[in-house]
């Protein structure tokens, strides 16, 4: 019998699945070196200490991501790369970075906050600043929530998307003022009035962007509303034309509001624990958020330490994009720099679209849903299963990617077929093959568990594809 490849404990596997985009052999080895998933998680929270050269280099594959907003607009207007093509490259880079970054906790939190402070892609008004908005999210994803709210709400991408860039004292646009309340902080439970929405919008006046020309953000004092404002207990006479300090104080007030604390805590629990977390765990995470002054690391530590987190293994369904990335990681795909549109790095957007989701493709400002009911339709399941089959067999995308060879999949030979299945399960699922997996693989491949695999030629390639597909289509892979 070949030696079984080590796998994480059930508790370690649970933590890794929730806070990474999929367990790989390299991640398993790293966890063993560090002494367990808890130690890995603590190290991940200090993401700046983790060298991530390969993932950083992926950005070079998409040169437009480093252009200024003005350069992007000029290129778009003169017949070069169009805005929707730039944001498509941004989406591709995001998918690849999630798949290959060593800073997996940071990547999961960037996705979480990008969904809360959502700006769709493509989006006609904000696209020249969209990549730089991502940079801002990344800078704050494991910092303090109040700092992030100020930075993201006042970012030119958000100002453009929700029309604050055209809001003036004489012609208030309330879009951003409303969404700051409804989506970014207190939520509908804040129980604010329409007058308070108007005051919220008045506070934000003055922040402008020179759209369609230089795309430079600026502050126009003459456009800032002056006069008394009051929102959810925040009150200010607002006598000055310069409302910058007022705006930042207002946003920090909302970010630290008790109703915001509970709303953010519940969203974190839904993302990392279950679709319907108990009031007890939400209370615990809320307390950590408040007591730490909105410190995200301390809040996550409290969430992971709660017994309900440990008890929630298998309770969350992967979204299509999370499924696709986990599949790339499970199959050990090595992506090459793209040179033609058929290459993997370019084609992956078509692939995830066929599965039912595109990164940042939710057209409303409230972000993607994060519950199983949204992602378990028949069409989604069929889309994922087709993608699993295509990826497992290397059928599509075919170019610009390297797959594991047969020799890299198989254990030391000779081995019984059930031992082969178990070995591959440990690579793909980071766990031994269950009896259910063994029965399903036998039924699909028609190879009996006791049959001997003496050389790699005893396992036809199409049978390996069938074996891999069974594991990828199972709940063990499609949940996190």
Tally of DSSP helical segments = 25
Contiguous uncertain segments of 5+ residues: none
Tell me the structural class. Answer: mainly alpha
Largest sheet: 2 strands, antiparallel
Report the oligomer.
single chain
In short:
The chain is built from 25 helices and eight strands. By secondary structure, the chain is mainly alpha-helical.
Secondary-structure topology with pairs:
Elements: H1 10-19, H2 25-34, H3 37-45, H4 53-57, H5 69-77, H6 83-100, H7 104-116, H8 127-140, H9 145-153, H10 156-161, H11 175-184, H12 194-204, E1 207-209, E2 217-219, E3 229-231, E4 234-236, H13 244-255, H14 258-272, H15 279-291, H16 296-305, H17 307-310, H18 320-330, E5 334-335, H19 344-355, H20 378-393, E6 401-402, H21 406-409, E7 415-416, H22 417-428, H23 435-445, E8 452-453, H24 461-473, H25 475-478
Antiparallel strand pairs: 1-2, 3-4, 5-6, 7-8
How would you describe the overall organization of this protein?
The protein has helices spanning 10-19, 25-34, 37-45, 53-57, 69-77, 83-100, 104-116, 127-140, 145-153, 156-161, 175-184, 194-204, 244-255, 258-272, 279-291, 296-305, 307-310, 320-330, 344-355, 378-393, 406-409, 417-428, 435-445, 461-473, 475-478, and strands at 207-209, 217-219, 229-231, 234-236, 334-335, 401-402, 415-416, 452-453. It has 480 residues and is mostly helical. Among the domains are: 258-310; 409-478. The strands form 4 sheets. A two-stranded antiparallel ribbon has the order 1-2. A hairpin with a 2-residue loop joins strand 3 and strand 4. Helix 8 (127-140) packs antiparallel against helix 9. The radius of gyration is 24 Å and the shape is globular.
């Amino acid at each position: 019998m070949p030696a079984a490849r080590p796998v994480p404990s059930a508790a370690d596997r649970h933590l890794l699945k929730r806070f990474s985009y999929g367990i790989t052999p390299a991640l398993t080895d790293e966890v063993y070196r560090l002494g367990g998933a808890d130690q890995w998680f603590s190290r991940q929270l200090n993401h700046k200490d983790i060298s991530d050269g390969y993932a950083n280099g992926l950005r070079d594959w998409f040169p437009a991501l480093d252009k200024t907003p003005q350069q992007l607009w000029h290129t778009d207007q003169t017949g070069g790369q169009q805005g929707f093509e730039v944001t498509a490259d941004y989406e591709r880079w995001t998918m690849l970075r999630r798949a290959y970054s060593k800073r997996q906790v940071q990547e999961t939190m960037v996705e979480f906050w990008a969904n809360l402070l959502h700006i769709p892609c493509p989006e006609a008004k904000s696209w020249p600043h969209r990549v730089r908005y991502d940079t801002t999210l990344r800078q704050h994803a494991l910092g303090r929530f109040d700092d992030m709210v100020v930075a993201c709400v006042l970012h030119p991408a958000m100002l453009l998307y929700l029309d604050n860039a055209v809001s003036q004292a004489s012609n208030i646009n309330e879009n951003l003022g409303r969404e700051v309340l409804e989506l970014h902080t207190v939520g509908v439970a804040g129980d604010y009035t329409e007058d308070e929405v108007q005051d919220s919008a008045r506070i934000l006046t003055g922040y402008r962007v020179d759209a369609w020309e230089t795309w430079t953000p600026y502050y126009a004092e003459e456009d800032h509303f002056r006069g008394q404002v009051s929102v959810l207990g925040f009150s200010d006479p607002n006598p000055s034309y310069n409302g910058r300090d007022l705006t930042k104080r207002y946003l920090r007030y909302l970010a630290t509001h008790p109703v915001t604390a509970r709303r953010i805590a519940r969203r974190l629990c839904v993302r990392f624990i279950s679709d319907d977390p108990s009031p007890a765990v939400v209370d615990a995470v809320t307390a950590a958020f408040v007591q730490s002054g909105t410190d995200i690391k301390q809040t996550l530590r409290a969430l992971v330490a709660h017994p309900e987190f440990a008890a929630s293994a298998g309770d969350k369904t992967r979204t299509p994009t999370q499924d696709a990335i986990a599949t790339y990681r499970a199959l050990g795909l090595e992506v090459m720099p793209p040179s033609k549109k058929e290459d993997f790095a370019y084609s992956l957007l078509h692939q995830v679209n066929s599965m039912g989701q595109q990164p940042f493709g939710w057209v409303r400002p409230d972000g993607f849903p994060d519950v199983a009911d949204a992602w378990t339709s028949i069409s989604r399941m069929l889309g994922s299963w087709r993608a699993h089959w295509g990826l497992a067999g290397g059928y599509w995308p075919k170019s610009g990617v390297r797959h594991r060879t047969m020799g890299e999949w198989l254990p030391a030979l000779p081995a019984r077929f059930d031992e082969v299945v178990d070995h591959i399960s440990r690579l793909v699922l980071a766990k031994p093959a269950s009896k259910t997996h063994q029965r399903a693989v036998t039924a699909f491949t028609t190879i009996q568990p006791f049959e001997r695999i003496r050389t790699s030629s005893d396992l036809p390639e199409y049978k390996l594809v069938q074996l891999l597909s069974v594991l990828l289509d199972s709940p063990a892979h499609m949940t996190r």
